[in-house]
Structures are given as C-alpha cells and as structure tokens.
Amino acid sequence: MNVQCAICDQIEDIDVNSFQAKRLMNRRISSYLCNNCHDRIAEKTNKRHETGNFHLYSSKNKDKRQSKRQK
Ligand SMILES: [Zn+2]
After folding, report:
1. Span from the CA of 55 to the centroid of ligand 1 (angstroms)
2. For the residues of the chain, what is the DSSP string, one character each?
3. What is the pLDDT of residues 7-63, one digit of tens each?
4. Predicted pLDDT at 70
5. Does 59 fall in a domain?
6. Domain housing 33
7. 9 falls within a domain
8. From ligand 1's centre to the CA of 35, what distance in Å?
9. How far is the centre of ligand 1, averaged over its atoms, from the C-alpha of 42 (Å)?
10. What is the pLDDT of residue 45?
C-alpha cells in the first residue's frame, strides 16, 4: 500500500496489514507522516519543551464549588 507523507510528499510502501494502514483506511487519521518527518516533529516538540516556550495545558485549579442555591 503506497502512502504519501503529508509533509515531504515522499511516497512509502507500508504493509497493508499494518496498524497504520488500517488506521488510514478507516480514516481515523487523514494524513500519513513518514518516519523522517515523524522524528523531526518529535524532535521539535521536545525542543519546545526544553525551551519552555511550549506550554502544556495544566490543570487549572478553578474553584469548582458552585454556590448552593437555597430554597
Ligand atoms: Zn515526510
């Protein structure tokens, strides 16, 4: 099964029985990333984590207590 990388347009032949191929055929993922691009993105993400410019959504400590209505 030929799949085209969404970033570099490289066409790769992946096993039609692979988990990735099944996901593509089921359209659970709309784009395929080759290993090179996948690694590159993972690297960038890690660097952003290191520089601290990338903020993960931390659980906000909102006060969820709702004012109780008194009848
Ligand atoms: Zn690629």
Report:
1. 26
2. -EEEBTTT--EEE--TTSHHHHHHHTTSSS-B--HHHHHHHHHHHHHHHHHT-S---PPP----PPPPPP-
3. 999 999 999 999 889 988 888 877 889 999 999 999 988 888 888 765 666 665 555
4. 59
5. no
6. 2-51
7. yes
8. 7
9. 13
10. 87
2 Cα: distance to centroid of ligand 1 (angstroms): 13
Residue type, 1: M
Q: Structural domain tally of the chain?
A: 1
What is the whole-number distance in angstroms between the Cα of residue 48 and the centre of ligand 1? 20
Give me ligand 1 centre to Cα 40, in Å.
9
Residue 69 lies in a domain: no
On whether residue 26 sits in a domain, the answer given is yes
CA distances from 59 to 46, 49, 52, 54, 71 (A): 21, 17, 17, 15, 33
Q: What is the pTM of this model?
A: 0.56
* Residues with Cβ within 8 Å of residue 36, at least 6 apart in sequence: 5, 8, 10
